[in-house]
Amino acid sequence: MQKEGSREVSFGPELGGFHGGRLFTGLFVAPIGSTRSPQKQTMSQSEQKENAEQPTLNSEHEQNGVLVNPKAVCNVCRRLYRDPKILPCLHTFCSDCIGQLEPFSVSSRSRRDAPGNGRGEALEEDRPTVTVLCPDCDTEVDIPPSGPGGLTTDHLALDDVFLETLVTDGPLGCDLCGEGDAKSRCDVCCVNLCEFCCQAHRRQKRTASHPIQCLEELKSRGRLCRPVLCSLHPGQELRLFCQPCDLPVCLECAAMLHRDHHCCPTRDVIDRHGDRIRELVTVRLRPCMERLKDSLHKVEVSQEALQARVDATANEVRVFARAYASAVEAHCLSLLHRLEELRVQRRNQLHLQRAQLQQALLDVGGGVEFAERLLSCGSDAEILSAKGVTLRRLTSLAKNSYDPNPATVATDDSSGISFMAREPAGDVEGYPVVGVINSKTVDLSKCTVEGEGLQRGVEGQQGYFALVCRDSAGEQVARGGEHVLVSIVHKEKKNCTLETTVVDNSDGSYRVSYTPEESGTYSVWVCVKAQHVKGSPFLLNVKRKLRRHSGTFHCCSFCSSGGAKEARCGCAGTMPGGFKGCGHGHKGHPGKPHWSCCGSTAEQSECLPRSVLAAVSPRGHLRTVEL
């Protein structure tokens, strides 16, 4: 501790260490080159209090309405950097912020064989390696076993923080006396000095050679170029480079810790190492970056084009939807109008039929009432007297009175009007629409039954026929859903009925299938809505199943068997010489090709039964070709 006038100035060993820095209006800045372990990075209570009061910057990096250099701001805490450290992915964050990151994984790694750090520090014991995710790029990065303090300090970030403090925080206080306004800064001690402390700093033997810069000049330059000091030897600048350890060292480190190593001035090796970095940047990474920019530009252009196309298509869809909705609404009104017309038409028809029936009922009722009263109340003379006019009226009523078939009265039970939602309805305002009002009703007298299976069938084989429902105009009803009943009963065996299957084709036609088990004549009833269609019941003739031929259709057994004597034939032909079959020109040969099993001369025919063969064959048994 030394006295300078009335002021007390302290120049301890910590000037070049971690605590050589001070708080600039609430900001703690570590001196350049500070890489001490976390155990040595403890702040005083006043520094911790001031550091906690440092304001958080917003997303635009503003403080009190003034823009702050984003390179001086930590992206985790949104404050100016405090002891900035560089992660292996080259992103910088505060040491405390890195220590608070959630571990991504923890793995054990032995350090017994690891090289030393070249600063004389003892090798640490085996500690687990913690891996975290970089908050900026999500890259997995390893934190040294010693913690965030073992990471490389970002001196450029420190320069940006100090420069930002000079620019934005206004007048600075002296870091030594704390009373006067700071006018200068010692690059070695990294302290801001007022004029009095600056003069004292120059007079001290130990600090007289330290370079001192004017703060106003630093502000005007906008860029700081400060020496990087050794963390082990305060005030010593890192001027040498130890090649075996690949570390910058100071003169004392080179003389003590690296005395057996090849150390050379940093200016002699900076070109080689700088050129290596420059080569990687210029030759490989810059072209790669340009390609990435071009690719990114293409992707962004494609995204913009995609969004523009999607927006245009969305507008087209909306325009189409509005127009289509208008067309559907117009079609809906048209359908409702058509439905109203059908209602009026059917109502008028029913009203007319009702009036006719009422009038006919009055006429017939009046005639019946008069005749019954005449017969029950009139005398013989009265009856005979009114007989002529009564008979004429009653005869006229019986012959000419309106007496429709009940099947034709009120045939429309309202089921004939239906909405077919999937039926094409043409175009409305240029748009295809679906949905029609179906007003056709089934007229039983116009329905038709079609198909060969309605008249003929074969025992054991499935037969088919079709029912087509038609309206009064004879046109096919374009909908299904009618209650169709088909019954097939044997004419002679009333307990023999066939099971039928009716398939609705949903177009007014119905497919009917059956499989007869016995031959004979059947009665086919086809009913719609419990009423027979025109022509029902129909007659169905089922023939017995055809007997298939089991032999060969040949000219003779001699030829078909290749002259075998044991070959037999179902015809009446014989051959001398011990042959059991027939031959050309011999007795009994039919004179044409025939079946060897039954002797039938028709190729497309049914095989004759044994009873027929016994009647026509002198052998009295079935003969077949045996080879």
TrEMBL record:
<dbReference type="GO" id="GO:0008270">
    <property type="term" value="F:zinc ion binding"/>
</dbReference>
<feature type="compositionally biased region" description="Polar residues">
    <location>
        <begin position="34"/>
        <end position="46"/>
    </location>
</feature>
<dbReference type="InterPro" id="IPR013083">
    <property type="entry name" value="Znf_RING/FYVE/PHD"/>
</dbReference>
<keyword id="KW-0862">Zinc</keyword>
<dbReference type="InterPro" id="IPR027370">
    <property type="entry name" value="Znf-RING_euk"/>
</dbReference>
<dbReference type="GO" id="GO:0005654">
    <property type="term" value="C:nucleoplasm"/>
</dbReference>
<dbReference type="Pfam" id="PF00630">
    <property type="entry name" value="Filamin"/>
</dbReference>
<keyword id="KW-0479">Metal-binding</keyword>
<dbReference type="GO" id="GO:0061630">
    <property type="term" value="F:ubiquitin protein ligase activity"/>
</dbReference>
<keyword id="KW-0677">Repeat</keyword>
<feature type="region of interest" description="Disordered">
    <location>
        <begin position="34"/>
        <end position="64"/>
    </location>
</feature>
<dbReference type="InterPro" id="IPR017868">
    <property type="entry name" value="Filamin/ABP280_repeat-like"/>
</dbReference>
<keyword id="KW-0863">Zinc-finger</keyword>
<feature type="domain" description="RING-type">
    <location>
        <begin position="74"/>
        <end position="138"/>
    </location>
</feature>
<dbReference type="InterPro" id="IPR001841">
    <property type="entry name" value="Znf_RING"/>
</dbReference>
<dbReference type="InterPro" id="IPR047153">
    <property type="entry name" value="TRIM45/56/19-like"/>
</dbReference>
<protein>
    <recommendedName>
        <fullName>RING-type E3 ubiquitin transferase</fullName>
        <ecNumber>2.3.2.27</ecNumber>
    </recommendedName>
</protein>
<feature type="repeat" description="Filamin">
    <location>
        <begin position="439"/>
        <end position="542"/>
    </location>
</feature>
<dbReference type="InterPro" id="IPR017907">
    <property type="entry name" value="Znf_RING_CS"/>
</dbReference>
<dbReference type="GO" id="GO:0007399">
    <property type="term" value="P:nervous system development"/>
</dbReference>
<dbReference type="InterPro" id="IPR001298">
    <property type="entry name" value="Filamin/ABP280_rpt"/>
</dbReference>
<dbReference type="InterPro" id="IPR013783">
    <property type="entry name" value="Ig-like_fold"/>
</dbReference>
<dbReference type="InterPro" id="IPR014756">
    <property type="entry name" value="Ig_E-set"/>
</dbReference>
<dbReference type="InterPro" id="IPR000315">
    <property type="entry name" value="Znf_B-box"/>
</dbReference>
<feature type="domain" description="B box-type">
    <location>
        <begin position="225"/>
        <end position="266"/>
    </location>
</feature>
<dbReference type="Pfam" id="PF13445">
    <property type="entry name" value="zf-RING_UBOX"/>
</dbReference>
<comment type="similarity">
    <text>Belongs to the TRIM/RBCC family.</text>
</comment>
